[in-house]
Amino acid sequence: MNVPQPVIAGVGAIPVTRDLTRPIPDLCAATVKAALDDAGVDASEVDGLFVTPAAISSEPWMMFAAQMGEYLGFKTKALAALENGGITALLALRAAMDAVQLGRCKVAVTLALDTRPRFDMAHFESFIRQACFTTMALHGPFNGLMGLGAPVPVYAMSHQRYMHEFNVSEEQVVMSSVRLREHAVDHPWAQFRDPISVDDVLGSKELSPPIHIMQAAGISSGVVALVVTNAETARSLGAKGVTVKGYGEHHHPSHFVPRRGSITRFESVEVAGKEALSQAGVSISDIDVAEVYGVFGATELILYEDLGFCSKGEGAHYLADGRSTFGGDVVIIREQADIVAMLRDPETSATGNGAPLQEEPEAIE
Predict the structure, then answer these.
(1) What is residue 337's three-state secondary structure?
(2) How far is the C-alpha of 264 from the C-alpha of 183, rounded, in Å?
(3) Which residues contact 310 (CB under 8 A, 6 or more apart)?
(4) Is residue 308 part of a domain?
(5) In this structure, what CATH number is given to the domain that contains residue 54?
(6) Tens digit of pLDDT for each residue in 301-333?
(7) Which of 173-187, 222-236, 247-261, 266-280 shows the lowest mean pLDDT across its residues?
(8) 160 CB-near residues (< 8 Å, 6+ apart)
(9) Contact (Cβ atoms closer than 8 angstroms) between residue 170 and residue 163
(10) Fewer CB atoms near the end CB (10 Å): N or C, the chain?
């Protein structure tokens, strides 16, 4: 069976902001229209819609896929909402690619978004109730009851262990935030665009030692849409598109932290990265642009190592030597998550996932 390679034919996105400025359905419709216009595809051609929840960390929307299908006026052969934390948006994209490759759909839209949670501090009892519900839902009955309100302390333990295990200083780790901000300064969709220094990061609020707030991924809002089809359909529609050459996925049986084994290594990244590279027929040295989501501090450096850009424990030196920026081996920008790797042409790039997929349009364009 000759399975067609999926093609991303159009993209649409809004800038990342603290809060959404318009109602969710309106922003979603405008972003999807932008993606369809970019692909030169009429809405009547769409026969698949794959969405993320309206918000992973905020109020739930019931049957969001069906609501958006109705709002957008799509008659679909496949319709689904997918959710699994930071990997959510790429799972929606993978579902769209699967549907296209299986021949279930000819033109599918992936719609990814997230909104900043809004807790009503004026009504303390309501705030506590919602905060407790969110904590238990996120961490489960054991860790939730132990008061683990956010995943930051888990990453802080990994951060501390990484510094101890590989004799890395806090200043060396902080350089990852400085370098990533350098890459965001000229990005029109970036939320934080002011240059920062090592002293700025070390002087910012400490969340959980040794992680400072400027080392943490922001809790932000945004919407992005991709049009997914196959090469034949793209040609017939006159869309240029970008072929997805390789995809890797691996899920370790753990939730935030492994119950056994190292907390300075992500097995899923190693396995998924190798699968994606192999499927695309390229090596890590062929990568020009990488979208990596190291959500807190040292996680960024661990991911560079586990993807194969440098040896274990060498992430800080790799960064200091300028190998992760313009003029180096690869340009690394922050995207979303540490579980999936994916490759695409023409400028081969490795990526994690996003909720939303905010960096996808930049790499594709």
Answers:
(1) coil
(2) 25
(3) 304, 317, 318, 323
(4) no
(5) 3.40.47.10
(6) 999 999 999 999 999 999 999 999 999 999 888
(7) 247-261
(8) 209, 210
(9) yes
(10) N
Q: What are 230-266's pLDDT values in tens digits?
A: 999 998 888 888 999 999 999 988 888 787 889 999 9
Which residues sit opposite 291 in a β-bridge? 333, 351
Q: Say how far apart CA 209 and CA 156 lie, in whole Å.
A: 6
- Token reading at 352: 């994690």
pLDDT in tens, 92-104: 999 999 999 999 9
Q: How far apart are CA 193 and CA 214, in angstroms?
A: 12
What 8-state DSSP symbol labels residue 5?
P
Q: Which domain holds residue 82?
A: 6-118+219-243
Q: Is residue 339 part of a domain?
A: no
Using a 10 angstrom Cβ sphere, with 0-12 exposed, 13-18 middle and 19 or more buried, the burial of residue 20 is buried
| Residue 157 token pair | 């333990």
Find the distance separating the first CA and the last CA of the chain, reported in whole Å.
31
Query: What is the rounded CA–CA span in Å between residue 126 and residue 189?
Result: 34
* Degrees, nearest 5: CA angle 298-178-115: 75
Percent of the chain predicted with pLDDT > 90: 55
Count of CA atoms in the C-beta half-sphere (13 A) of 144: 12
> Does residue 42 belong to any structural domain of this protein?
yes
What span, in angstroms and rounded, lies between the C-alpha atoms of 348 and 289? Answer: 7
**Cα(297)–Cα(311) distance, rounded to whole angstroms?**
18
Output DSSP code: residue 257: B
Q: Is residue 303 part of a domain?
A: no
Total of domains in the chain: 1
As a whole number of angstroms, the distance between CA 54 and CA 18 comes to: 15
Q: Which tokens go with 13?
A: 């996105």
